[in-house]
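Whiteboard transcription, Tuesday session. T.W. wrote the structure tokens on the left side:
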């Protein structure tokens, strides 16, 4: 009898999380059920539509956060789930991304795009924020002690939020759809090579950043 050559089992094909009929399923079931049971969702988001959700975001989202140490979802996370349920049109998504008056609206729709959009579209929409230095407040999962004080938030910036979404497998405790590194998409001809922006060094020192009201904090 001929010897049977053992072959290693083939690796299972990657299942893209974005290919779902209901976008709300992009959030894990336990977290999704906690959001649906939260008082904030029931009071402000249960009947919200594409237009009425914007005042909710601008009035109640004052920081970026997932769930706290006891599992309570933040307003940011609640609004994210409602956006996934509504699946707003591309025109609304691009308008909310491009507006500069409310940074947490932009941050929320950046997360929405990262969860739902194609790799090419995600890079095209999120990379311009690598030169946006507005401040963001990030909620910590667990409070940290600093000089004897309990700190529940940390300071970040829009450019750091953009970098995190494009390079990390998780954000706010949620698993993000897999996205290839930019150089792989360039080699495949999906994206054009990115040109160096020599003005970034000036902006990093606080120079070259517009002083218009568009860059004023909407949370402080």
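and on the right, the sequence the group agreed on:
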């Amino acid at each position: 009898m001929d010897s049977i050559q053992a072959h290693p089992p083939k690796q299972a094909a990657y299942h893209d999380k974005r290919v779902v009929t209901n976008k709300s399923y992009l959030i894990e079931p336990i977290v999704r059920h906690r959001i649906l049971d939260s008082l904030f969702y029931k009071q402000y988001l249960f009947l919200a539509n594409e237009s009425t959700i914007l005042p909710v975001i601008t009035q109640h989202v004052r920081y970026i956060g997932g769930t706290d140490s006891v599992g309570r979802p933040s307003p940011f996370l609640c609004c994210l789930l409602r956006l996934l349920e509504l699946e707003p049109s591309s025109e609304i998504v691009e308008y909310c991304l491009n507006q500069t008056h409310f940074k947490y609206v932009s941050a929320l729709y950046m997360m929405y795009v990262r969860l739902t959009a194609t790799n090419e579209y995600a890079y095209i929409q999120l990379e311009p924020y690598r030169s946006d230095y507005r401040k963001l407040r990030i909620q910590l999962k667990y409070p940290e002690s600093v000089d004897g004080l309990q700190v529940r938030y940390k300071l970040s910036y829009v450019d750091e939020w953009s970098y995190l979404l494009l390079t990390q497998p998780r954000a706010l405790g949620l698993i993000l759809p897999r996205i290839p590194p930019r150089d792989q998409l360039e080699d495949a001809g999906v994206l054009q090579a990115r040109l160096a922006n020599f003005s970034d060094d000036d902006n990093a020192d606080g120079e070259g950043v517009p002083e218009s009201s568009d860059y004023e904090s909407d949370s402080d």
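Someone added at the bottom: The beta strands are 135-146, 149-157, 170-171, 174-175.
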